[in-house]
Each structure stands twice: as C-alpha cells, then as structure tokens.
Amino acid sequence: TMKNRYPCEQCGKAFSTKPNLVTHMRIHAGIRNFTCDQCGKSFIQKGNLEAHFLTHSSDKPFKCSQCTKAFKTALQLKKHETVHTGDKPHECTICGRTFREKGTLREHHRIHTGAMPFTCEFCGKSFRFKGILTTHRRQHTGERPYSCLECQHHFTNWPNYNKHMKRKHGIDTSHTKHLNKSPTQAPTQAPTQKIEEDRGAILTPETTSSLQ
To answer: RNA-binding: present as a keyword of the record (predicted)?
Structure first.
C-alpha cells in the first residue's frame, strides 16, 4: 500500500517513510548508536535509551487501578492493563489471530513470512526469534546461566533447568525464573571451537582429537 511503501528486504516489514526504514535496518545490521552511560547497554533508537534510563531508578509512579502493581513507564502500565481488560487490539492480517502487544504480533507474523532475521555469528544458522538465538549461542560459548542450588548442575536454558528441578528435586520453579539465572556461570573464556561445515557440528579440542 501507499501508506507503507518502504519494505524491509530482510524481514518484509514495511514503513510509511524511508527514515523509519533506515532506523529499522539497524536491527538487522546490529547498529546501536545510543549507549547508557551508567551500565554500557546500547540501543538502536534514542527513545529506547531514554526508556532504559528509568530502569536505573527505583521509582514506579504509574500504578494500576485494578491491582497493586506499579510500573516505571506509562507504556508498561498500558500493556499491563490489557491483562485486566482482555483487549487484544493487534490482529494478524493473514490468519486473524489477535495479540495484546504489537511486538508479539510482529513475532507471530514471521511464521507466515518465513523471515529469520536473527543469525548466529558463530555458525551462520538463522532463527525466527531472538530468544532462540540467545539460547543457541550458548552451545558455542559454553555459557550455562541457570544453576541448580540443590546439586550445582548448570543449564543452558530455562526449560531444561525447570525439568531438572521437578524430576530430581520435586520442586516447581516455573514461577521463579528470574531468581535462578546466574550470569556468573558463563565461562571466563569461551571453549575453543570450530564448525564442521558439512554437518554443522560443534567440535571442541577433545572431540576434534578423537576424530583424527
């Protein structure tokens, strides 16, 4: 349509103006020009950085009128309020499914377009969702951020950690994800690896020597 006549060649999303498309392309290029001077985290857009600044403050001035929850930004409150109202204003134009948040609709739309905009820098494999790429990347880095406090086992992803806690210790941790993630479990140096081109297997020095 004329309203959104500037499409992204990588994911198919279209924009009404060329500057908006240019800003969007930074997502695929990994360009983050706006950096927080307190924690070093970088962002693609200035508005995202300004919203991020609020995370360094403990103030939560935006209170929900339906429950006791409070939020740092008006946008966070607005998203939360849909939990009470049941509103799902964002509709997929292809299948009609509706969503509470626009970002969730964008992720869903990739199912129809087949877009996989998130690519692993180690092996080149692409993924539809950023979270899946984050989990996949740990195969290369050796990071295991989810730690069992009962037996000191460490896991690369939350589902495996949660399954372990239920089966081995009889503990339901499904509502305590944020309490068990331990970034300190990442190795100080990523294991030496090389990618076997024909199979995509990850080879450590030990497995490499066994194949020789």
So the answer is: no
Q: Give CA–CA dist 202/122, Å, rounded.
A: 10
92: left (phi over 0), alpha (psi -120 to 50) or beta: beta
Residues 74, 15: Cα–Cα separation, whole Å? 25
pLDDT per residue as tens digits for the range 44-58: 888 888 888 888 888
* DSSP structural state of residue 191: P
Among 171, 150, 149, 151, smallest CA distance to 162 is for 171
Q: Can you list the domains of the chain with their CATH numbers?
A: 6-56 (3.30.160.60), 62-113 (3.30.160.60), 144-183 (3.30.160)
**Residue recorded with tokens 């100080």:** 188
Question: Does pTM top 0.85 for this prediction?
Answer: no
What is the distance between the alpha carbons of residues 60 and 76, in angstroms, rounded to a whole number? 10
